[in-house]
From TrEMBL:
A GO biological process held by the record: GPI anchor biosynthetic process
Alphabetical list of InterPro entries matching this protein: Endo/exonu/phosph_ase_sf, Endo/exonuclease/phosphatase, GPI-anchor_lipid_remodeler
CDD domains: RgfB-like (cd09079)
Protein name: Maltose 6'-phosphate phosphatase
Pfam families: Exo_endo_phos
Domain Endonuclease/exonuclease/phosphatase residue range list: 19-253
Lineage of producing organism: Bacteria, Bacillati, Bacillota, Bacilli, Bacillales
Listed GO CC annotations: membrane
Gene name as annotated: mapP
GO molecular function: catalytic activity
Transmembrane parts of this sequence: none
Organism: Virgibacillus massiliensis
Domain of life: Bacteria
Length: 269
């Protein structure tokens, strides 16, 4: 089973259309089973095409480009909050697999879409070769945030996930792996395993280089984007992508791709 997560920073990038093409071509080439995206935006003033999606929804355009390339993905998106006074920003999941169930829920204490710290998670339960798995695309807050602390958001997330089946928490967790006794450690305290740590083959895992929005004055390379699993899968590979080495840079975050081995303790991939 092949997974990808990326904070795509949509509509904030220079050469955004070129970068959207790179993302589509990369997904088509790798044929990921599940893709989790964060900062998936659409213009507030754009034309409505479904009950929630607008014409320039970044993920919708991505799916259209994938269709043009010959890859069929199902798509779900949840609106979290407005951004930069002109966008509706949310989280999304794409999958090639049959969908058994889908959900979305708040993890923030705020439910005000005008407040930029309001956070939703979107989830899909899929059938992968006869075995159900659940996936959640997450864009979380910061450990030290007094208004929306990460710990409270994680507690809310864990309350809402399907604990009856193997599941994966994928996305931008805004907590660096090298900071002890904060968010990264708390996720593991809740019983989740970092696929990077489980991987037989891996690179540095760095997903943020230097200063970006939310990490102003940061001059360190950080690992803040993760794929956590509720199980101890046999992970063959965890690799950073869209870092200028493995595919061109297309966002202020690099992505993470993971390959789960066939014949894991929870089924086949």
């Amino acid at each position: 089973m092949k997974l990808l997560t990326l904070n795509c920073h949509s509509w904030q990038e220079e050469d955004q259309w070129k970068k959207l093409d790179i993302l589509a071509a990369s997904i088509h080439e790798a044929a990921y089973d599940v893709v989790a995206l964060q900062e998936v935006s659409q213009s507030i003033v754009s034309e409505q095409v479904t009950d929630r999606l607008k014409k320039d929804n970044f993920g919708l355009l991505l799916v259209q480009k994938l269709n043009d390339l010959g890859s069929t993905y199902k798509y779900t998106w949840a609106f979290s909050h407005t951004a930069y006074d002109q966008y509706e920003e949310g989280v999304a999941l794409l999958t090639k697999c049959p969908i058994l169930d889908q959900t979305e829920f708040l993890v923030s204490q705020s439910d005000d879409p005008e407040f930029w710290k309001t956070r939703k998670v979107v989830g899909l339960t899929i059938d992968h070769h006869g075995i159900p798995y659940a996936f959640y695309s997450c864009h979380m807050g910061w450990w030290q945030d007094k208004e929306e602390p990460f710990r409270c958001q994680m507690d809310q997330l864990v309350t809402n996930v399907n604990k009856q089946i193997p599941h994966y928490l994928m996305g931008d967790f805004n907590n660096a792996s090298n900071i002890e006794a904060e968010g990264y450690a708390y996720v593991q305290h809740l019983g989740y395993n970092d696929t990077f740590q489980l991987a037989g083959e891996k690179d540095s895992g760095i997903t943020v280089a230097g200063e970006i929005a939310g990490w102003e004055k940061n001059n360190e390379n950080k690992r803040i984007d993760f794929i956590f699993t509720s199980t101890k899968d046999k992970v063959r590979l965890s690799r950073v992508i869209f870092d200028g080495i493995n595919k061109p840079v297309i966002s202020d975050h690099f992505g993470v791709e993971v390959t789960i081995e066939n014949g894991t303790m929870n089924g086949t991939s």
